[in-house]
């Protein structure tokens, strides 16, 4: 694997052009060599495609089918660890080894014997109770080559125009991302980012028996059906009534209600830009398909469509976003 400086604080991985902040170098091999277990479920997504929703569906099916597990009140990132969160945290001003920080304290509460120096979230992923439901935004090519031979993977894709809107909001909301420019600047960044290689790496593996490839739009249109497909893929044995309850419990409305409690972490609000929160909402912004029509200019829509056309030429017609 080869790294070279792209701009200050950022690296670009050749030959595919994945972008990362420099602390990724410290962790890249650890992620690549991460030991997955046969009963892990790994949720692989490009950011803002419905990761948290899928984590909550899977974690609840596996660990809380009767909706009475007290651990359900822990933040989702503690129950279902974010594999590479350390490198993002270490590229921010937050020092997660400092007692008193939200990340440190939440982690200490979950795993008191940790050694923060080796990466808090990496260890959380290692120590999490089986079966582990692990989240990652890393593309397949930066994860263990034996991932699909070892455990089950759920890949979630979403319309790039809605992803652009959601990601722009996220980048404004979270202080450490601190994006302050206009939406059109964000779109310019987005069409240079690695959305397509990420989705294609997933799509090209979709026929592997250990991958379940799903679309946010289908989950939104038919939540029950899509939940049943995940249930079948995971070989679980829940009752109709348990599944109905889980569909309700993981709806946007119910999850956004839990955002007020602890779903995203007790102190998340301190990491958010209040102005953005008051204007456009929190992590659970809107949870719909097609909001780009209200948020993107004609020019930006056109830009994303052309970029999509170019990048989906080689994909078959089954691919939802092919133009
Ligand atoms: P919006 O910003 O469009 O509302 P991720 O978890 O990958 O970061 O994705 C976040 C997006 O998924 C946000 O999209 C969020 O609102 C949406 N989302 C989260 N939970 C959801 C749910 N239960 N149903 C529908 N959308 C959900």
From TrEMBL:
Residues 38-315 form the Sulfotransferase domain. Pfam families: Sulfotransfer_1. Belongs to the sulfotransferase 1 family. PANTHER family: SULFOTRANSFERASE SULT. One of its GO terms (molecular function) is sulfotransferase activity. Keywords: Transferase. This is Sulfotransferase 1C4. The lineage of its organism: Eukaryota, Metazoa, Ecdysozoa, Arthropoda, Crustacea.
């Amino acid at each position: 694997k080869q790294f070279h400086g792209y701009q200050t604080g950022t690296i670009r991985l050749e030959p595919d052009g994945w972008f990362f902040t420099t602390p990724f170098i410290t962790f890249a091999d650890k992620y690549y060599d991460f030991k997955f277990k046969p009963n892990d479920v790994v949720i692989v997504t490009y950011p803002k495609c419905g990761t948290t929703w899928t984590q909550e569906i899977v974690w609840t099916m596996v660990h809380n089918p009767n909706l009475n597990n007290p651990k359900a009140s822990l933040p989702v990132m503690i129950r279902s660890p974010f594999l590479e969160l350390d490198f993002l945290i270490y590229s921010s001003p937050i020092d997660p080894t400092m007692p008193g920080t939200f990340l440190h304290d939440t982690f200490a509460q979950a795993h008191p014997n940790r050694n923060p120096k080796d990466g808090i979230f990496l260890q959380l992923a290692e120590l999490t109770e089986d079966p582990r439901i692990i989240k990652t935004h890393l593309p397949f090519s930066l994860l263990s080559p034996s991932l699909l031979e070892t455990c089950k993977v759920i890949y979630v894709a979403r319309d790039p125009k809605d992803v652009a809107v959601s990601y722009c909001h996220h980048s404004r909301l979270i202080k450490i991302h601190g994006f302050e420019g206009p939406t059109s600047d964000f779109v310019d960044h987005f069409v240079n980012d690695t959305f397509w290689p990420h989705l294609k790496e997933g799509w090209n593996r979709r026929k592997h028996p250990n991958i379940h490839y799903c679309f946010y739009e289908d989950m939104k249109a038919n939540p029950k059906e899509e939940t049943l497909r995940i249930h079948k893929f995971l070989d679980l044995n829940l009752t109709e009534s348990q599944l109905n309850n889980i569909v309700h419990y993981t709806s946007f409305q119910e999850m956004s209600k839990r955002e007020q409690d602890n779903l995203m972490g007790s102190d998340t609000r301190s990491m958010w830009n209040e102005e953005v929160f008051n204007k456009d909402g929190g992590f659970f912004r809107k949870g719909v398909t097609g909001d780009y029509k209200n948020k993107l200019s004609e020019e930006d829509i056109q830009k994303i469509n052309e970029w999509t056309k170019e990048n989906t030429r080689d994909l078959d017609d089954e691919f939802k976003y092919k133009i």
